Amino acid sequence: MYWWSRYYAMQGNKLIYKTFKKHELPLLVVYEKEIELYFNNFSDSIQQFNMLRTEKLGGDPDEDEDDEKDPYTGMYKGSFRIYELSNDGDDRDLIYGSVPTAGSIRISVRLYALQAIGLATPSRVKDKTCDPFITVTLGPKTIADTTSLMRKNRNPRFCKIYNMETYIPNHPELQVAIIDFESTEEGRDALIGQTKVDLEDRFLSIKRPICGLTERYMISGPHKWRDFMLPTQILDEFCTANTIPLPSYAEDGSNCVINDEMYSITEFEKHKENFEDTAIWGPLKERIALYVLLELGLVRDYAEKRKLINPVMPGVPQGRMLMFTDIFPYMESPPEPMNIDPPLPVEMELRLIVFDVTDVETVEEVPPEKPDSDTLHDLMIKGQFAGDPEAQVSEIHPRAVNGNGAFNWRFLFNFGYAFLDRKRNIPGEIEDQMLDPILTISVVDGDPSVAPEPYAFLHLDLTYLPRGQPKEEWSVMEMIPGYVEPPPPTPDPLAEEEDEDEEPPPRPP
């Protein structure tokens, strides 16, 4: 399964979600806002304090309204704690054991830039579109990735991975910006919006958002474990940082005891047959350690939708950025990145067979015993799939009486279908076009001059098409989602007035 399968499973695709649940495959958490808003800004280890300028000390920073200078000169990151020590001082190591070491820490950062959603187009009022690409800044290094350029797309799917390095606390801020390519009248690039991520808060947080924990420990496949530490190592580190006794495991690794509470593998793996392939699933000890970590509230595998802000219009989001980051201590060969490539559309063929039509309301109803060549109609079936430049037509059924005609005609439509998006994919020179797979079937007159508009038509959405029925009488229009029975024709008021003016027939003697 692709990463995007997990994303769409959490975005409302019930079919994919049921498949993941049935086989007990790992899902992820999709945060509709910045992830730090759900975890108190990751301030469990350190907090931020604004520092006032010297002339403002002891006074209210908002007191002098004429002073346009920013009253704050910087920010202090730290934490204040008060502990009660014993007389012998043996507990000092327990208190200071989890404090980060002094000095700079070199880290590796991996950014997964997935998709921009609902981009604003302030510099293009006329066409209301944009040509976005990504710019990533971390410390003194900036990557202007013009290879990510997506023409005329307000919801571009980038699927890009960026590997960078930095030192904290020297350069803790990761900035991701979306740029509109040559959008100004002078032909210069324009900033659409940007988002900033504080890497230091994430690196030092007890919740460990540096690399989201997957719900299953797998050693191969698309959901392979991508953290630089094993679950047992992470659990030992968590216990040490929180002064909790180290966990103990059963000999076969089927259960784990931590803080006087026992966890069993059967609590988390309901169907044993789903976990029999040893080439995919890791050892029991690592799996139970991972389940304990998830129960302790550490950050799960996630994707976040961050606001894109333009400094010219502060407070007004210019769209959102779907992304997530992995942070590791610097290493020459970091873990293998996750595959975030979108699945390719599948080439499919749609076959539509029309046997006959009955009771089609034509221009004028013809009594079957008195057909007239001037009032008989030539019927024809027209089929058009969304995105096709022209419709396909059947042979003409000549001289149809009262809208009844036999065709036995087959239509063939070839198209590419993106299963996760539930859209038809139409390749383009610049970008692919995604359309709802809607098939329109209409009954028209063989002579357009007689009736330019179709006599009847039907829209079929292939994503919600009901199953075929074994009997004709079971196939009713109400089976089609969204189908509404057309209202009865409104009576002609002029005809009613003519009926009222007519004299009533004489009564019989």
Walk across the major sheet and give the strand order.
1-13-14-4-7
C-alpha geometry? globular
Distance between the termini: 88 Å
Order of helices and strands: HHEEEHEEEEEEHHEEEHEEEEEEEEEEEH
Determine the structural class based on helices, strands and strand pairing: mainly beta
Unreliably modeled segments: none
Give the DSSP E fraction (strand runs of 2 or more residues). 25-35%
- The strand count comes to 23
Mean pLDDT metric: 83
Helix content: 10-25%
> Radius of gyration over alpha carbons?
33 Å
Number of helical runs? 7
Largest sheet: 5 strands, mixed
In short:
This protein has about 500 residues and is mainly beta.
Features:
509 residues; mainly beta; five-stranded antiparallel sheet; five-stranded mixed sheet
Write up this protein.
- By secondary structure, the protein is mainly beta.
- The protein has seven helices and 23 strands.
- It has helices at about 5-10, 15-25, 90-95, 200-205, 230-240, 285-295, 495-500; strands at about 30, 45-50, 70-80, 105-115, 130-140, 140-145, 155-170, 175-180, 190-200, 250, 255-260, 260-265, 300-310, 315-330, 345-355, 375-385, 390-395, 395-400, 405-420, 425, 435, 440-445, 455-460.
- A five-stranded mixed beta sheet has the order 1-13-14-4-7. Strands 16, 17, 18, 22 and 23 form a five-stranded antiparallel beta sheet that branches. It has a four-stranded antiparallel beta sheet with strand order 6-5-8-9.
- The longest helix has 12 residues, at about 285-295.
- It is globular, with a radius of gyration of 33 Å.
- The relative contact order is 0.11.
- The model has no long low-confidence stretch (mean pLDDT about 85).
